[in-house]
Amino acid sequence: MSDSPGVKRLLETTHRALVFRTPALDHAGVRRRVLEAYAAGRKPSRRARTHRLALLALSLLTVAAGIVFLLRGHASTTFEIAGQRGQAGSWLETPPLEPLRLSFSEGSRLSLGASSRGRVGRVSPDGARIELEWGSVEADIVHRSGTDWSFAAGPFEVAVLGTQLHVSWQPEAGQFELRVARGAVRVRGPLIQDSQDVQSGQLYRVDLRRKMAGFGQAARATDIERPPAEAPAPPAPRASAPSAPPHPVSRVASTGPARVSWAALARAGKARAAVAAAERAGLDEIDASASAESLLDLARAARLIGRTDLERSALLACRKRAPGQPAAAQASYLLGRASPPSEAVTWFETYLREQPSGLLAREASGRLLESYLALGDRSGALRAAAHYLAAYAEGPHAAMARRTLRSGKGNE
Amino acid sequence: MVSRILDQSRSQPGTSYQMANRGLSKSAAAQSQREGVVHSELSLETDADLVEALQRGNGGAAGRLYDRYVASVHGMIYRLLGREADLEDLVQDVFVQALFSIRKLREPAALKSWLLGIATSKARSYIRRRWRQRWLCFLPQEELHEFAVDSDPQLELVDEVYGVLDQLPAEERIAFVLRRIEGLSLHEAAQTSGMSLSTFKRRLARAESRFEARARLRPELVKWFDRGPS
Description:
Strand content of chain A: 15-25%
Largest sheet of chain A: 15 strands, mixed
Order of helices and strands of chain B: HHHHHHHHHH
Strand content of chain B: under 5%
Shape of chain A: globular
Helix content of chain A: 40-55%
Largest sheet of chain B: none
Largest interface: A-B, 96 and 89 residues
Shape of chain B: elongated
Structural class of chain B: mainly alpha
Oligomer: heterodimer
Helix content of chain B: 55-70%
């Protein structure tokens, strides 16, 4: 090919135009779907089992080393969950309305909020690392010389001295919140240049979707309840890490279906378990009584494991449950995505009629155009293309829409 | 209330704030910079650490992989496919496949190029699918007429270039984009596209020749081939 300066400039200009006009991606939505798919499909392989055995052996060695260390007078921090010894590395999930309290041997206290997932990633003689996958955690950390406490909430890192704080991470919304009631912390993460110190009484928020970060209103003091010794212990938590010991925490699979609802499982991305629990609970009953949002969660779970029949029935039930509501419109969009072009056209048009400015309107418009093209419906395609370009001239289907219009004009 | 709005051009959601791209080539590092990846002095987890965590089944590692590389994968797919692709589904597919095949990754330090290889493979399948769909489409491509809708001349130019690329076979298109638009070295481009160096060179030469022949038929592009528009 000619290597003239003009051609080089042409390709550089193309590259620049693409880089500076890369369309926005629904990062939080894609991230959630990726993690849901991963959680739904993870199967322990033989190699994973071998790894677990190796980890078990390693754990035993670590315990032995710990005992030696203890005998030498430098005890590692331990913690209790609901009065029973906790295991670092085990994931903990809390159901709706049921926070979980953890107390540490050096006096610090934690409360994993309701509908949250997190774990004590590691413990050391001077503290622990808490990893929050979603939800919230409140902490009251005892300040000592050399205190080593840190929190990881999604992509954010919070380094702590002695303090009382609340950390919240909602991956679906891309929202991080840090409230410090006492002491000071340092946070690092996306949208934070270098690091940000947050002092007593301050609230710091990051919204990844809106690309905003900054301080909010003064925080009210968080209150980590310290239950009296005789207080009844809260229910035992559920831990889902494959390496979790049988005691003191039991695995999700071993808890009864009455304790973990299909809706909670679906919301937590445990697609296969959610569908199984829903079938145990009775699909007719669910279709008749579940909330529209729960039905959407169930439909997503069903889709992830290839149960298109269940996905469809949940979406149709959702439309009946909340006519005229955004959830019903969302169900239309998902029905369109799951249907052949002849039917998809109707569902995408329904979405656009019900939510013309909805979050999925651009995507529905594009998919409507695709469906018309797949059907060979020329007038429908021209109409959809014109509508698309009028609303989203720089959208991902704009080139397809332009081609459709050009060709339509050429054929007249 | 959130009170400070940060400069969007300097940091993006989902980009890595960790010094995890050590060992990247110069062009890859430049690409990270173009995509707004922010590197700080914080060095918590290398790519090798992250791969190890994923292979161990660490619960939070999947999210960290996504956050670290979503901008690179998104940008690469966008530039391979142009403006009409269904980017969200493709980005999602890339990460899901990566997570399920992470155990096959032999060189943890090569995580990024491995991911971009998957992205390229997904883009290749997408191009082939489009190519097949085009045969079924009722609108023949050769009958396209000028119909200016965009008011942005740069985007019109992009559409012209990708209009030509749409006529190239998938392998040649990928070779052309990686080398001539993305600016990767021959070695990097061959590795990312999963071709041997000699195969890559052969396909690139064919792609360049076809691209020029077809671009010269377009009034908006032909003027660039001699001196380029002033």
